[in-house]
Amino acid sequence: MKPFALKPTEDAPAHRAGVLLPLRLAGAYDYAMKAPLPRGTLVTAPLGPREYLACVWGDGDGSVAAEKLKSVEPLDGEPRLPPALCDFIDWVARYTLTPPGQVLALALRVPSAFDEEIPRFAFVRGDETPKKMTDARARVLALCEDGLARKVSDYAAEANVTPAVVRGLIDCGTLKEIALPEFRRFPIPDADHAAPVLNAEQQKAANAMVQDVRVGAFAAHLLDGVTGSGKTETYFEAVAEALKRGKQALILLPEIALTVQFLDRFAERFGCRPAEWHSDLSQKERKRTYRAVMNGEARVVVGARSALFLPFKELGLIIADEEHEQAYKQEDGVIYHARDMAVVRARLENCPVVLSSATPSLESYVNAASGRYHWLRLRERHGVAELPEIRLIDLRQEKMDTGTWLSQPLREALAVALGSGEQAMLFLNRRGYAPLTLCQSCGHKMMCRNCSTWLVEHRYHRRLTCHHCGFDMPTPKTCPECQAQNSLIACGPGVERVAEEFASVFPQARMAIASSDTWHGPLETQAAIRAMAKREIDVVIGTQIMAKGHHFPQLTLVGVVDADLGGADGDMRARERTFQLLHQVSGRAGRAEKPGLVLLQTRNPQDAVMKALASGDRDAFYEQERLFRERAATPPFGRLAAVILSGADGETVREIGRQLAKAAPSARGVKVWGPTPAFYHLLRGQTRERLLVQTEKSVDVQSYLRAWLALVKVPNAVRVTVDIDPVSFF
Ligand code: ADP
Ligand code: ZN
Q1: Fewest CB within a 10 Å sphere: which of 30, 193, 423, 670?
Q2: Residue 714: which residues within 8 A CB-CB, separation 6 or more?
C-alpha cells in the first residue's frame, strides 16, 4: 500500500485493511481505517445493521471499491490478539476447513474482556481526625487499622454501626475514597513451594522437559508412564521451570470432573490454585481470567480444550494430560482435536508441549517410537505401590442366574476386600438401569423418536431416556405396539442394575453410583469421588467417569462387569479404546501400600485386548495395532476425513450424498467411500449420511476436499460437516 499515491480527500479512507469478523464468512472483509493498525488489533466493524467485535487480519484484497469501504474503529487502548494466536486461528481454519471467522469466534468468546476496567470504589482511613468521637465511630476506626479498603456497607456490618455513621466519617475526611481494580488479582504460583524429591526415572524425564522450557523452543514430549508413576508430579517440574522463567503454562485436562482434585493438588505443589478455564465459569470469572491471561498476570491456566484459544502473552509450555482421551475431540462447531492442536499451538509459540498418558493414543505412540517426539518413560509406580494383578474371568465357564451380572469369583473377591476394610470399584460403561426395554409379547423395542437409539431405562426415576437428544418419557405399563399389559422387560445391565444386584448380595456395604447423565449429574459424581476419597463409602459403581485420574489409596479391588463392551463398536479405534479404558480402570486399584486386584469378566478371553491386559505387555499390543493400521493405511499411516450430511428431509440428504459420491474427483492415493447411513442414522430428528475419504499420507486432503465440495451445489436444507481425522464414526 502506498498512502502517498492516494491523494486522500477529506473523508476518503487513508488505509484499507482486511478485517475478520467472528462469523461463518468466507474470509476477511475489506474496511477502511484512519491509521494503519497491526494484525490482531481489535476493532468494531459494522456489517448490515449490526456492529461486531472484529480483528484486523491483513491488508485487504481490494474486493471493495475505496469509496464504498465502511470504516472500523480500534477499541480504546488498542488491545490486540497476540500474533501467535492469529497464526493459530488461521492454521486451525485451514486444517479443519472451517471459515476463519468461526475459529476467531472461539478466541473472542468474552467480548467484554476488552472493555475499559470498571473500578470498584471503597474507603480507607483518611488524614482528618474526627472532631467528635463516639463509640460507633471508634469501632469503625478500629477496623481501619488493618489497612483493607471496604465499602460503606461492609464497615457498617463489621463494626455494627448504621451506614450513616460511616458516611459521617466520610464527610469529615476521616475515611477517604479509593479506586480498586475491577478484579481480584491472580496469586502467583510459587515454583519452590513444595517441590517433591523425584525418583531417578522421574528426574530424568523432568530434566528433559525442563531443559526444553529453559531453551524456549518447540519440542514435543510423550510422557508415557504407568498409572501411579507420578506423571503429574513430573510434569509439574516443567511448569515450575516455566514459572521461574517468567513464562505462562497451560495444562489441558480432558474432563472437567477431574478439576477439583487436580486444583487442590496443584495448590499443594505451588501454594495456590491456578487460573481455570472451562464452561462452568461465570461470565465475570471468564472476563477476569481472559484479561489476566492476556496481560500475563495469570501464570498457569488449567483448562478444557477451549483454553487453547486464549490470548496468552508469553506462553512457555503446554501440557495435555491424559492425551489419549477422546474428550479432546471437539465434535460440533469447529471440529478439532485439542491434543493435535496443542502441538500446533506450541510450534507457533515456540515452546515445548508435553503429552501425558499411561495409554497413549496410537498416533502419539508411533510418533514417540519413530523419534519425532521425545519418549519419556516411567515404568514403575512411585514408592512402594505395585501395579495391580489382572485376572480374566471367563463368563462362559461361570454358572450365573439370569438377570445377574456378578460372577462367583467376583463376589468372593468383593467379600474379601470389604471384609478387610478395603474399598472396591465395579465398572460398567453403561448408564441407567438397562440399555434396552423390550416387549415380551411382540418384540417391540422402545426407541427414541428423534434418534436411532434405544431408550435407556432409569428405574429409580421410572423414566426412559435418550442419551443423545435428552428425550424422555415415563416407563409405560403397556406395550405401545401391541398393548400387552406388563410385558415390557429390561434387557442387559446398566450401573443402576448392577448396583441393585450388589446391594442384594452385600446389604451392609455403603455404595454410590457415579455416572454422567441427566439423572446422576456432575454434582453427584463429585460427591461420590469425595466420599470415596474420604472413605465414607465402600464401593463405587461407575461408568467411565470413574475410570480416570482418580487416586483412592484404599481402593484395592476393581471389577469390570463387562469387559467386552467397547469391542463391539467395530471402528478402527475400538480395540485401542477398549484397551485404554480398561487399563485406566485397572490403574485405580492398589495405588498405595496394599496390592491391587483387577477382575475382568469377559466372554472372549482369547481376544488380543484381554490377553494384553492380563499379561501386562502393553507394547506388544501397540505393535500389533500399529501393524494393523500400517497395513490398512489408516492413521497415522494414512489420512482420514469424514463428510457428514444431515438434514430433516432424509431423501434430500441421501440424494446429495449420491451426487457427492459421483462427483468425487479421482486422484492418486485417494479413496472415497459412501455414502452410508451414519451409525446413528437419525439423530435429534436429523437424517445423517457419511462419506469417508482415505488418502495416502502425502496427499493434501484439505485441498482435495475443497476442490471436491465445490463441485456440488448443496441446498440450504442439507448441512455439510467436515471432520478431519475423525475419532468417532457416529
Ligand atoms: P500418575 O499421574 O502417573 O497416575 P500421580 O502423579 O497421580 O501418578 O502419582 C501417584 C501418587 O504418587 C500421587 O499421590 C503422587 O502425589 C505420588 N507421587 C508421585 N511421585 C512422587 C514423588 N516423587 N514424591 C512424592 N510423592 C509422589
Ligand atoms: Zn434421541
Answers
A1: 193
A2: 656, 720
pLDDT averaged over every residue in the chain: 90
**pTM for this prediction:** 0.86
Report how far residue 206's alpha carbon sits from residue 241's, in angstroms, rounded to the nearest whole number. Answer: 10
Q: Which residues contact 289 (CB under 8 A, 6 or more apart)?
A: 275, 276, 277, 281, 298, 301
Instruction: Pick one of 3.40.50.150, 2.60.120.200, 3.40.50.10490, 3.40.50.300 as the CATH number of 200-378.
Output: 3.40.50.300
Q: Return the residue whose CA atom lies nearest to atom 10 of ligand 1.
A: 228
Pocket of ligand 1 (CB under 6 A): 196-199, 202, 225, 227-233, 382, 551
Q: What CATH number should be reported for the domain whose range is 15-110?
A: 3.40.1440.60
In the reported structure, the alpha carbon of residue 234 is separated from the centroid of ligand 1 by a whole-number distance in angstroms of 8
| Fold that domain 389-430+493-625 belongs to in CATH | Rossmann fold (3.40.50)
- Taking only the tens place, the pLDDT of each residue in 333-387 is 999 999 999 999 999 999 999 999 999 999 999 999 999 999 999 999 888 888 8
Residue bearing the CA closest to ligand 1, atom 20 = 230
Q: How far is residue 202 from each of residues 206, 209, 288, 371, measured CA to CA in Å?
A: 6, 11, 35, 20
Would you call 443 helix, strand, or coil by DSSP?
A: coil
The bound ligand whose nearest atom lies closest to the alpha carbon of 197 is 1
Please check the confidence at residue 60 and state whether its pLDDT lies above 50. yes
Closest CA to 357 of 150, 138, 160, 584: 584
Mean pLDDT, residues 223-235: 94
pLDDT tens string 591-624: 788 889 999 999 999 988 899 999 888 898 999 9
Residue with the nearest Cα to atom 23 of ligand 1? 198
Expressed in angstroms and rounded, the spacing between residue 591 Cα and the centre of ligand 1 is 9
Q: Which of 382, 551, 588, 591 to mutate to test the pocket of ligand 1 (most atoms within 8 A of CB)?
A: 382
Q: How far is the CA of 646 from the centre of ligand 2 (A)?
A: 15
